[in-house]
Amino acid sequence: MFAPPDRSPGSAIDSGTARRRHARLGPRRAAGPALSGCTTCGSQDVRGCVSIGNDALPSPIAAALLLAPSLTAREASVFELLGLGYDNRSIARMLSISERTAKRHITAILAKLRLESRLQAGLTAMLVSLTTQTDLAHQTRA
Q: Which of 15, 21, 84, 124 could be disulfide-bonded to 64 (CB atoms 3.0-4.6 Å)?
């Protein structure tokens, strides 16, 4: 019988693989905006006010946040539903379009925002929604 190699922490394979990966890629760092307390109103309650700082988001998502306004109205609707976790069939039903059209909109969104996966698009959509809600909260306070 074939037994898989021991990859438990501390094993020879585990430590050698980790060293090679570290040498090739360097230490893991995130680039882009980070969620922090509100810099606009000074509130430390991050549940009510969240702003974008400069340290924790992966660079593709940070770049996509800047490109999000370039989406068409229909793509923005699909993008919002992606952020809420809808699948293609549910998106199609919500927007009264075919499932194939929903898939094409998602493909266009990924291309425009330079993202690699629907997960990245969904996370970006959540952040766009969060920052929009924060902006609205600041407008009502002012």
A: 124
Q: Tell me if 90 sits within 8 A of 81, measured CB to CB.
A: yes
Q: Give pLDDT < 70 ranges for the chain.
A: 1-55, 135-139, 142
Residue 59 bridge partners (DSSP): none
Tally of residues, the chain? 142
Report the number of secondary-structure helices (H) and strands (E) in the chain: 6, 2
Chain centre distance of CA 137: 22
Contact 34, 52 (CB under 8 A): yes
Token pair listed for 13: 């394979």
Provide the sign of the torsion angle of the four alpha carbons 85, 109, 49, 44, taken in this order.
positive
Q: Which residues lie closer than 8 Å to 35 by C-beta, 6 or more apart?
A: 46, 50, 51, 52, 53, 56
